[in-house]
Design brief:
- The protein has a domain of 128 residues: Immunoglobulin-like.
- It has 4 helices and 14 strands.
- The strands form 4 sheets. It has a 6-stranded mixed sheet with strand order 6-14-8-2-1-12, with no helix packed on it. The protein has a 4-stranded antiparallel sheet with strand order 5-4-10-11, with no helix packed on it. Strands 3-7 form a two-stranded antiparallel ribbon.
- The N and C termini lie far apart (137 Å).
Length: 227
């Protein structure tokens, strides 16, 4: 028995063929292909935007603002500490000899602002012609470790100073007519007033080659004299 497709079947087959051709054309169209991948592209764009958003959040500090641990932050802290430190121009030094080879040093704030000292004083000698001479210095943590001493105007920090005397005829003996003092963390010196046990200025005292032994600056004179 011979079966022939009906008109309806033939029409359906024709439509299917036309649809297949249309889909083939669409698949070959580059513009349509890009459009077809538009959803993934949009997702990628969204991910990129999110990443950019995250980057923006990580960089939340305003321009010119130093973050924690930055050099600028450290510099600011150092500048603040520098503001509080006593400068040479703020200070005067008096060396009061208590007995042979032993003295108490008094560092007084002569300025109009409070400032802080911590550590050891540096020393140099003055000769009779007022020229300076280097003098060896040995530091000892006596009567204790260095502490920050805040000096209000007119107040004083104390330190011990000792040395061995010597024969003025000895070539290694330094015969000093005075002392210059360098405050902690400073590079400029000031001339100290050196007073004898009688309270009068000392114009000459011999210091052995070993030089000075220096104690720490303290807020009180208790215990600062070196043995």
């Amino acid at each position: 028995m011979n079966h022939r497709p009906t008109a309806t079947a033939r029409a359906a087959a024709t439509a299917a063929a036309v649809l297949a051709l249309a889909l083939g054309a669409v698949g070959c169209d580059d513009g349509t292909t890009a459009a077809g991948s538009g959803a993934p592209a949009a997702a990628a764009s969204t991910a990129t935007a999110a990443a950019a958003g995250n980057g923006s959040t990580a960089s939340a500090a305003p321009a010119g603002t130093a973050g924690p641990g930055s050099a600028a932050g450290t510099g600011g802290a150092a500048a603040q500490a520098g503001t509080d430190r006593c400068r040479t121009a703020d200070l005067k030094a008096d060396v009061q000899i208590q007995e042979a080879g032993k003295a108490m040093v008094m560092l007084t704030n002569k300025g109009s602002r409070s400032c802080t000292v911590k550590g050891y004083l540096g020393y140099g000698g003055l000769l009779a012609d007022n020229s300076r001479t280097d003098t060896a210095t040995h530091r000892v943590a006596k009567p204790g470790l260095p502490v920050a001493v805040t000096l209000k105007p007119g107040t004083t920090a104390f330190s011990g100073l000792s040395w061995n005397s010597c024969d003025k005829a000895d070539a290694t003996c330094g015969v000093l007519a005075g002392l210059v003092v360098t405050p902690p963390d400073e590079t400029t010196r000031l001339t100290a007033t050196v007073l004898g046990t009688d309270g009068k200025p000392v114009v000459q005292f011999p210091v052995a080659k070993a030089g000075f032994t220096v104690g720490t600056l303290q807020p009180s004179n208790q215990g600062v004299l070196l043995g």
